[in-house]
Design a protein that fits this description.
17 strands; 2 domains; Diaminopimelate Epimerase, Chain A, domain 1; eight-stranded mixed barrel; alpha+beta; about 40% strand; single chain; about 300 residues; 7 helices
């Protein structure tokens, strides 16, 4: 057996025991893939990351990301939390630290402003920009899957669509926060709603939120990945501009939003989102948020 240090982070929050939980396992070069999956299942957080020696010495680390059910090529809150853990381990004591993570989807650059006791604020540039939206299934099909009234689906120019930005999502706009709170996945209708698409999950949202300054209030369900509901989903946020920009056509420039998530789970989370638009096309997406350290320990495997 060997011992590996780990850190438990609450991500997209400044308050312990809120946000999205993450386990970061350090020095994981010798841990086999099947063992990483078992460790992720043991932690049973939405994701666990395994930090390895980078393939390129100019980068900070290679990072493998596992849900309780399977490995995924990219994820947002694991990127934020892992970047903050690694920034605190860099020499020099700088307030702002550049981090480059090798994830399966590609390189993910991040800038971390370190804080006390392992906390920090990180912003990363998504490794993929959103593809053009694709038509979603009929509203009746989505309503059956979410166990909600079909009249609640859609608002303004927002309609359900599939959007991919590395990971693929079904975005479902709902007219009220109450409708968002009522949504729940009926697995008997899940396959029909996926419509043959290899999506990670369904992301429901409405305008506004619980907190002042929230542009959108959201929930995310990924049952096939062992995540019945996620308190904060940075990779879905990275795709979200691919839903917002075509729906609202705000023009060229940099557009920013605060997205809140996790309130229905008792784990409030705040995600800062920015997208650069030029010539009507999204050229870059940045996802940012705080994280706090809640525990450290030693894993023996």
């Amino acid at each position: 057996m060997a011992d590996y240090q780990f850190h438990i982070m609450d991500v997209f929050t400044q308050v312990n025991f809120t946000g999205n939980q993450l386990a970061v396992v350090l020095g994981a070069d010798d841990i086999a893939d099947d063992r990483m999956q078992k460790i992720a299942r043991e932690f049973n957080f939405p994701e666990t990351t395994f930090v390895r020696t980078p393939k390129d010495a100019g980068h900070t680390a290679e990072v493998r990301i596992f849900t309780p059910a399977k490995e995924i090529p990219f994820a947002g809150h694991p990127t934020i939390g892992t970047a903050i853990v690694l920034a605190h381990r860099q020499p020099g004591g700088r307030a702002d630290v550049d981090i480059t993570l090798e994830e399966q989807l590609g390189l993910v650059p991040a800038v971390v402003r370190t804080g006390p006791d392992g906390s920090g604020y990180a912003s990363f540039t998504a490794p993929a920009t959103p593809d053009a939206p694709r038509d979603a299934p009929a509203v009746d099909v989505i309503a059956d899957m979410l166990s909600i009234d079909r009249a609640a689906i859609g608002f303004d120019n927002h309609a359900p669509q599939f959007v991919k930005a590395g990971n693929d999502w079904l975005f479902v706009p709902l007219s009220t926060k109450e409708a968002v709170g009522q949504a729940t996945v009926d697995m008997a209708h899940w396959t029909a709603t996926k419509a043959g698409q290899d999506i990670v999950g369904v992301y429901v949202y409405c305008r506004g939120g619980v907190e002042d300054g929230a542009a959108f209030h959201a929930r995310m369900f990924a049952p096939e990945f062992g995540v019945p509901e996620d308190p904060a989903t940075g990779s879905a946020a990275a795709a979200f501009p691919g839903q917002i920009i075509p729906s609202e056509d705000p023009g060229d420039g940099t557009h920013t939003w605060r997205v809140e998530q996790g309130y229905e789970m008792g784990r409030p989370s705040q995600i800062d989102l920015a997208a650069d638009v030029a010539g009507g096309h999204i050229t870059a997406v940045r996802v940012a948020g705080h994280a706090v350290q809640t525990a450290t320990g030693t894993l023996s495997v």
